[in-house]
Amino acid sequence: MTEKTTGDQVQGAEQHEFSAEVGRLLDLVVHALYSEREIFLRELVANAADASDKRRFEALTDASKALPPNASIRIHPDKDARLLTISDDGAGMNREELAKNLGTIARSGTRAFGEKLSEAKPEDRPSLIGQFGVGFYAAFMVADRVDVISRQPGSDEAWKWSSDGKGAYTLSPASREAPGTDIILHIKSDADEFLDAWRLRSIVRKWADHISWPITLREGEEEKPANEGTALWRKPKSEITAEQYTEFYRHVSHQFDEPYATLHWRAEGTTEFTALLFIPSARPFDFMEQSRESKVHLHVRRMFITDDAELLPVWLRFVQGVVDTEDLPLNVSREMLQSTPVLARIRKAVTKRVMTEIKNRANDAENADGFATFWENFGPIVKEGIWEDSEHRQELAALARFRSTHSDDPTTLDDYISRMKPEQENIYFLTGDNAETLAASPQLEGFRARGIEVLLLSDPVDGFWPERLSSYKDKTLKSISQSHGDLEKFEAPQPEGDAANLDALVPALKEALGENVKDVRGTVRLVGSAVVLTSEGGPDAMMQRLMRRSGQALPPSPPILEINPHHPLIRDLAERAAKGESVADYAQVLLDIARIQDGETLPDATSFAQRLTGMLVASVKN
Predict the structure, then answer these.
(1) Distance of CA 517 to CAs 522, 558, 587, Å?
(2) Keywords on this record (predicted)?
């Protein structure tokens, strides 16, 4: 959060201004989410529960942070004063943390959030609140001022954060009887419903019934329980409704879709644990920008411990949920989590169960559309496992789906193999940045002419995993850009026109292009195009682009320029070269055309344009 201190000090208050960008974003949160105002309470209660979890965990190693026996989350509506207060006994915040934590909105990417919010459908907007970490600011949908009073355990000092959400906030010393946090909402005149106990109770039951902390609601002079407070994953499946599963999924994932799959089971034996996991049906807006670590929550005896236990491999990081065990001590350290065999067994069992679910759905022909959507959303992540997980590499390859030249419908490797020609030994693929561009690539011409199917791989990870997988069911995976000579094994239709004599043209092109190419040679891979770039003995073009983008230094690896001896342009150039005429300018244009076809950025676009313009002028004159 960009801020500046005005220098005004009134009774110890420090005034800070939000940046203009944060101010605009607050306005978006308030107005774009107007129809979903009730979610403010979900977000504030969730924050209170997180703060309580944090203090309870810290108290395991620091007795001074012990929670009071009656720790709870309290909701107090005051109609006369038009105030709604949400209080907790959690970890609290000091002055610096108030400024930092209530500025999460900027650290999460202010501009990106604004763009996503304005583009999203109304029904999708609430999920953006949780995904971008701006849940606190939902309070301004119903409040024209928000005060936060907080005190940390072990400190006598409390601080107050206050803002109307319009451009500035203040920080000032305050007092609070016990550690914890009070969030005080000055309710807007058009938000009276959020001062009614029945309305608040219905929101808590809808959004926070599963939270294990007691939530109480003041009704008159009484504090009444507002949630059931039962850990949902501990209940028998027969006692849980589909609606309860969905609401819990939305709580842990901060999304508003229905889960694609719900996995709820209890493992017994050497290692005992309960798991409640969800596979989403929609990809989060910023999914590819998120951390690669799995964030499944680890609980020990219902107590939240961490979401950094890496309970699933990174290629299953889209799976959400909770794993609860009694086989670990409550004060388990991060170092112990990395080394304990108990957690290793849990990881293996949980991964196996999720994999079984995905494989079952992949093989369910009656619900193929559902799996196709799942793969479109998360296939690029699952394929990371083919690259980095030797234990699951082959089974992941078996369930993967790919675009190919066979049809518009995705295919599996098994289906590809069933369509291979009798003499075909390899599974052919082509990698690139865009599936549509790949489908039009001249690299495919010779394969299409011979009826050989080619997989079209356009996800970034596709530049890596084929090399690591190497083969599937005794069939070698091979890039068609590195398959010189393969097509000569297959019968092909007779090309149109005579083939040019390349004896003079090839050395002339080599001389003109110099170190820009590794070689120049004729090819049978082309039908309608004049040139194409290929490679040998190193990473193909897609891999080289990915490595350059990641900042890796690459040794020079110039491509091979292959030319089509049956193309009219190549025949004309061959005649020129045979007569001793220069083809230097044509050589550079041919190389640049091949680069453009391959999705490369031209090293000198101006020179290319000048050469091409000169050739067009000469052609028009003739």
Answers:
(1) 14, 5, 11
(2) ATP-binding, Chaperone, Cytoplasm, Nucleotide-binding, Stress response
SS (H, E, C) 192-243: HHHHCHHHHHHHHHHHCCCCCCCEEEEECCEEEECCCCCCHHHCCHHHCCHH
Q: What is the pLDDT of residues 244-283, one digit of tens each?
A: 999 889 888 878 889 999 999 999 988 999 999 999 999 8
Position 512 confidence tier, pLDDT thresholds 50, 70, 90: very high
Ligand-binding annotation for 148, yes or no, is: no
Is 136 known as a binding-site position? yes
Q: Is position 88 annotated in a ligand binding site?
A: yes
Q: Which two tokens stand for residue 209?
A: 């019934």
Positive or negative, the CA dihedral 390, 392, 398, 403 is negative
> What pLDDT was estimated at residue 414?
97
Q: Provide the 10 A C-beta neighbour count for residue 549.
A: 9
Q: Where are the alpha helices (DSSP H) in 484-540?
A: 505-513
Q: How far apart are CA 224 and CA 204, in angstroms?
A: 12
Whole-angstrom distance, CA of residue 142 vs CA of residue 164: 11
Query: Of 352, 288, 315, 349, which Cα lies nearest the Cα of 468?
Result: 315
C-beta of residue 270 within 8 angstroms of C-beta of residue 327: no
Distance separating alpha carbons of residues 29 and 134, to the nearest angstrom: 9
Instruction: Say which amino acid occupies 233.
Output: W
* Residue 340 is assigned to a ligand binding site: no
Q: Which residues contact 128 (CB under 8 A, 6 or more apart)?
A: 113, 116, 117, 120, 285
Q: Consult the annotation and say whether 108 binds a ligand.
A: yes
Distance CA 565, CA 563 (A): 6
pLDDT at 568: 94
Q: pLDDT-derived band of residue 134, with 50, 70 and 90 as boundaries?
A: low
Structural domains of the chain, ranges and CATH numbers in brackets: 3-224 (3.30.565.10), 233-367 (3.30.230.80), 402-487 (3.40.50.11260), 505-540+552-621 (1.20.120.790)
154 is in an annotated binding site: no
| Per-residue pLDDT, 286 | 63
Q: How far is residue 380's CA from residue 223's CA, in Å, rounded to a whole number?
A: 50
pTM of the model: 0.73
- Rounded-to-integer distance, Cα 76 and Cα 48, Å: 14
At residue 8, the pLDDT reads 43
- Residue closest to 440 by CA, chosen among 565, 541, 528, 544: 528
Tell me whether residue 134 is annotated as binding: yes
Strand 273-279 and strand 320-325: the pairing is: antiparallel
Residue 47 annotated as binding site: yes
